[in-house]
Amino acid sequence: MKTIIGNWKMHLGIRESIAHARGVLRSVMGHEVLPEIVICPSFTALSEVRKVLVRTRVSLGAQTMGTERFGAFTGDVSVAQLDDAGCGFVIIGHSERRAMNGESDAIVNAKMKLIAQTSLVPILCVGESKETRAAGKAEVFVAQQLGAALRGVTITKASRLIVAYEPIWAIGSGTSATPADAVAMHNVIRESLQKIGIGASVQVVYGGSVDGAHAYSFLREPGIDGVLVGGASVKIHEFEAIIGAGREVMIAQNV
Ligand code: PEP
């Protein structure tokens, strides 16, 4: 199974989100073999997009969540509220939030602990900066980020975890990592997870300037379980092509 996640970021209003979600549904219509598809609109559009997705094979996710279950936290949205809104997935530790909203490893860890008490699937983002990669420290950095995010988090055999390897320098830059570099880092991620005792139900996906033209080159790699797509996920023809690449791979490889 391959998983394709669309992170719509702060791009679409409610009407546009409804129209875009309908577009995604049109592009999967009539296909028996399909990758798992998750779309992550802004908070304001979650309820309306949920209505569009009811009884379809496209799932709903959120782009972030707060660090508490409920209470006097103005402006925050808790994991319980996301559950209530029909989300099955939530992105945690996106590099944009780490950089612009002070989402530290400790905050990411607190969120992971809260999610572990729910049925939502975390999409945990990790990834190094250009400088860290240039210094030859990318693998150590990502392994540390992962360890910090998952410290004390109970992940049972029944629960699911998606780790998204998203090198910061590749996000929104138009320059993706090579599939070979992504596979190498995915192996590091899997080894690190094994060391901390988290195994079977983890998927590792790649994110960073994936588009319709080269999604196939990532998705065909057995070590890449899917893609997390930002900019290209709000362009229907791009997202459709990425879904198509996922289908092609699944049919060719019978996965
Ligand atoms: C992202 O925001 O998670 C992302 C991968 O963005 P982009 O595809 O635009 O690089």
Strand content: 15-25%
Number of strands: 8
Along the chain, the helix and strand elements come as: EHEHEHEHHEHHEHEHEH
Largest beta sheet: strand ordering: 1-2-3-4-5-6-7-8
Describe it.
Helix content is 41%, strand content 16%. By secondary structure, it is an alpha/beta fold. It has one domain (3-253): Aldolase class I (TIM Barrel, Alpha-Beta Barrel), CATH 3.20.20. It has an eight-stranded parallel β-barrel with strand order 1-2-3-4-5-6-7-8, surrounded by six helices. It has ten helices and eight strands. The protein starts with a strand and ends with a helix. Helix 1 runs parallel beside helix 2, helix 1 (14-28) packs parallel to helix 10 (236-253) and helix 5 packs across helix 7. The chain binds phosphoenolpyruvate. Residues 7, 94, 166, 171-172, 207-210, 228-232 line the site of phosphoenolpyruvate. The site of phosphoenolpyruvate has 14 residues, from strand 8.
List keywords for this structure.
255 residues, alpha/beta, TIM Barrel, 8-stranded parallel β-barrel, binds phosphoenolpyruvate
